[in-house]
Amino acid sequence: MIKYRIGEMLSMVEKEIIIKNKTGLHARPAAILVQTANKFKSDIFLEKDEDRVNAKSIMGVMMLAAAEGSKIKIIANGSDENEAIEEISRLLESNIDEEEKV
Length: 102
What we know:
By secondary structure, this protein is α+β, with helices and mostly antiparallel strands. It has helices at residues 27-37, 58-63, 81-93, and strands spanning 2-4, 11-18, 43-48, 51-54, 71-77. It has a single domain (2-93), classed as Histidine-containing Protein, Chain: A, CATH 3.30.1340.10.
């Protein structure tokens, strides 16, 4: 979905996903998400309920306290916003850092 800000012709891309990671966005998955977000030039935010945080900030992502099943909105604005949304949504919809240990 593309939205336009009033008075500006800047596009903003948004996508809603559900956290599938059994332990939610605890420290290690949050760090992986932040590293991924920082690869992009676009401004990237995560929104849960009515809280919006910078996806490039480990403290912000941790403050969301996103558990398994949480609905998260990813918002990106910038030159590589579509690529950012796709990569981050794939990451959040996966089982980040839940490889089975033998």
